[in-house]
Specification:
The complex is a heterodimer of chains A (251) and B (194). Chain A is of the alpha/beta class and 251 residues long. Chain A contains ten helices and eleven strands. Chain A has an eight-stranded parallel barrel with strand order 1-3-4-5-6-9-10-11, surrounded by seven helices. Classes of the chains: A alpha/beta (251), B alpha/beta (194). Chain A binds chain B through residues 1-5, 40, 45, 67, 70-71, 74-76, 93-96, 98, 118, 120-124, 166-167, 195-197, 220-221, 250, and chain B through 12, 14-15, 18-19, 21-22, 47-49, 107, 110-118, 135, 137-141, 155-156, 175, 177-181, 183-184.
Chain lengths: 251, 194
Amino acid sequence: MLTKRIIPCLDIKNGRTVKGVNFVDLKDAGDPVELAKIYSEDGADELVFLDIAATEENRKTLADLVLDIAREIDIPFTVGGGISRVQDVETLLKNGADKVSVNSSAVKRPELINELASTFGSQCIVVAIDARQMNGDWKVHLVGGKVPTEIDLFDWAREVEERGGGEILFTSMNHDGTKNGFANVTLAKLSDMVNIPIIASGGAGTISHFKDAFEIGKADAALAASVFHYKEIPIQELKENLREAGIPVRL
Amino acid sequence: MKTVIIDYGAGNVKSLQFAFERLGVNAKLSNRREEILAADRVLFPGVGEASSAMDKLRQSGLDALIPELKQPVLGICLGMQLMCDHSEENNTQGLGIFKLPVLRFAESEKIPQIGWNSISGLDSKIFEDINEEAFMYMVHSYYVPLSDETIAKSFYGLDYASAIQRNNFYGVQFHPEKSSKDGSKILQNFLELE
């Protein structure tokens, strides 16, 4: 039976992890490869590496990092941040990334999704959507959630699927950083509306938040950063709790 | 022992090569006929779309070579599907090593299937020391139905073949190179086949 996935997200800047990471047993807390190894041994199902300061100059740094990760890690991983061209994706996949995620660039030029899906296959194209609920409506935001657009979340999700996106990584800007739980009602609506997997993001604070994202939000996977980085929720313990609650997980 | 990964431009070959590197094995990427024929073990990976992958095999003449191989051959993901007769994905004619079809999952399930699914009914040396219900990482929209050649099955809306075998040809739908320690053990078992 297909299991629900738990996905730690690592923010990368110039080839190093950002945010203080609270791993006492870590020799170099800024080394994404070492951190990734720990997560994969702890039972993470997948990893996401997000280059938060992606520029043309540090493209090569990211490509080299992907190669280092692929050499060491035996679980799948996704790379995102500033990807806007087919050739960017080609390099990352060639170096061993399993999937790439696109966000603002796909909103600005939706054909990018078609180009990537037809060149590399839908299965490796994750479309990340940041959205905020304003006056009752969910509006897509750009540049890491900073810039609002007039685009409706559900219209965009449907278009992403039609254009060949393989998965949607939905971050609720209303919930992100609150540690009050995921946007479960909206997640469930997305999950019922499109027929591709939905990754929930934004709001994880407790083990029961993950349970709710799967049970109420009908998410296929849940992504979080700080609760894992600061060891507030050990992945193994999270998955044991989910299994006890009857949610299928890989243990 | 010489291990060759067929490199025909349709796969995440780097990950597979690194998986062997972690086992201490230097697997060579090649699309050269002599090199593939001379190998003790052949890996046939593949991700992406079936018909363009078949086009690439034809362009390099590998479509005729692969079915003639006598050493153990392991097809992975799309590689396994291409070893079958015919795929519903863009109505693609495969290599015909397995007289099996490749069908699209029913729309009642989310497509593609992405994630860790369990394998059971394990019936091959390549699963030595692998437990029933072990989890493997899968990413696919099409599947091979159960048959006499099924050596492992999984469930996604229906039971399907997550691994198949016919003589020296093995196929796995999952990605052993991305399936943690159990995946790595399967690659090791493949190398150790007699």
